[in-house]
Amino acid sequence: MSWNEQRISRQLKLRDLHVLMTVARSGSMGKAANELSVSQPAISKAIADMEAALGVRLLDRNPRGVVPTIYARALLDRGVVAFDELKQGIEHVNFLANPTTGELRIGSTIAIATGFLPAVIDRLSRKYPRVVLHLSAGEAAMTYRSLEERSVDVVIAPLFASMAVEHLRTEILYDEPLVVVAGAQSVWAKRRKIELAELAGATWTLPPLNSLYGSVVAEAFRVNGLNVPPATVFTSVTPARNALLATGRFVSIVQGSVMRFNLNNPVFKVLPIDLPMTRRPIGAITLKTRTITPVAQLFIDYAHEVAKALPRQN
Fold it and tell me: What is the pLDDT of residues 61-109, one digit of tens each?
């Protein structure tokens, strides 16, 4: 350890950084003291010692509590990374000590989380039953943000051109288009040949048009020279759209993976309408600047295995 590193380790300790992070998050030294089970004077002293060591003010006081200064923000941004890397290191050590255990946080879109991911998790958990997986799902943009914030370790989501940034590591798992779906009891489900234009007067449920996939849906209609139909329900909640489709009254456009893993479900029927311009790659996404734990790599490997078994779609 160099002299500068020794000096920094004397000035700043992980405990002090943790105190600063807690105060910043709670907005109050009193609340931080309660959360950390220490006295408020101890919190005040830790902050004062850090300010003296760094020579800058870390917190601004106001009638409602405290807020981090620009200097504290600079420190906190890197503190999150430091604690995250330490946590990743501990998980790596635990995995090396016992390769059958581990923990992983996965982010995904709702559609992929209801189709592709259960197949991956089922296969992995059969061989590694003590691996604990935390799965969260939402809008594609939200899953990317959760990765940036390090609240998840890996994201399984569609790859959009707008997300092609240098600090992300991506591995393509498979490609999928959007498909037009109706309930099995729908009048449209009985048609062997149908054009998208014929559905202009149907009762639609679609993803919000200002979402990433909503923009792809809108483009699918434009490519066919059509306006987006006036949908009755706009929602990104895949189970809600599925429930509406099951009534037989609604039609929708969904990610192909929703149907790929529900091929034997008698409730739904994929209509014979080709939407080639909607095809998007689905990938495993991680941060280049973040160490991939063995459990994360194991999960990605199993995702590749499941993806290879998927039927090819033209």
Answer: 887 888 888 888 888 777 777 777 777 777 777 767 676 778 899 999 8
What CATH architecture does domain 98-174+282-308 belong to? Answer: 3-Layer(aba) Sandwich (3.40)
Do the first three CATH levels of 98-174+282-308 and 178-278 match, i.e. the same topology? Answer: yes
Contact between 16 and 51 under an 8 Å Cβ cutoff? The reply is no
Determine the Cα–Cα distance for residues 172 and 178; give it in Å rounded to an integer.
17
Sign of the CA dihedral 158, 162, 164, 169?
A: negative
**CA distances to 26, 37, 72, 126 from 79, in Å:** 16, 21, 10, 37
Q: What residues does each domain of the chain span?
A: 3-79, 98-174+282-308, 178-278
Which helix (H) or strand (E) segment holds residue 241: the answer is helix 238-246
User: Helical H runs in 128-224?
Assistant: 140-148, 212-223
pLDDT at position 206, please?
92
Side-chain half-sphere exposure of 114, counting CA atoms within 13 A = 17
User: Backbone phi, then psi, for 89, in 5-degree steps?
Assistant: -65, -40
DSSP string, 49-96: HHHHHHTS--EEEETTEEEE-HHHHHHHHHHHHHHHHHHHHHHHHHHH
Tell me, which fold does domain 178-278 have in CATH?
A: D-Maltodextrin-Binding Protein; domain 2 (3.40.190)
Tokens of 168: 């992300």
The pairing of strands 233-234 and 203-206 is parallel
